[in-house]
Amino acid sequence: MSAVPFPAPALAGLTAIERAYAAADAAAAFQAIDAYAYASLAHALCTVNRYDAGAMRVVRLYSSNPEAYPPGGSKDKAGTAWGRHVLQERRLFVGEGEEAIREFFDDHGAIRELGLRSVINVPVVYGGACLGTVNFLMPRPAVSDADIHAARLAGLLALPAFQALARPQ
What we know:
Largest sheet: 6 strands, antiparallel
Helix content: 40-55%
Structural class: alpha+beta
Strand content: 15-25%
Number of strands: 6
């Protein structure tokens, strides 16, 4: 049986993730996970949010487009269908097309301005608790099963960084 070659961009991303974790650098890990996922998803925006369950709020830790979505930005998700689905029920969310983006995201205008038409939000869960989300937005109006699997893997790769950030320093 011959081995299927691992794509060079994905291998470079995986190596960058390893280096970031070896250096205990969560921010570098999120950036490397973004690059790793790009090899499969070709997304136009990746953000990573920490979840504050007490306040039902997400705070952006990482953004591939810090001009449009700067780290430190936050969104209240109390009483939203998205917050219930992703943060409380810990289920992956897929939004396809401009109508879905408009229905579930208050910042739909900014998303539309960036030419983004689909989204995959991956809850990062450990021990039954949602620690945050890894989010991929694409210019195409629909996503494939392969896209969803790649996004889920990226969420799992982010778990050590979320756990490190949750530890008292």
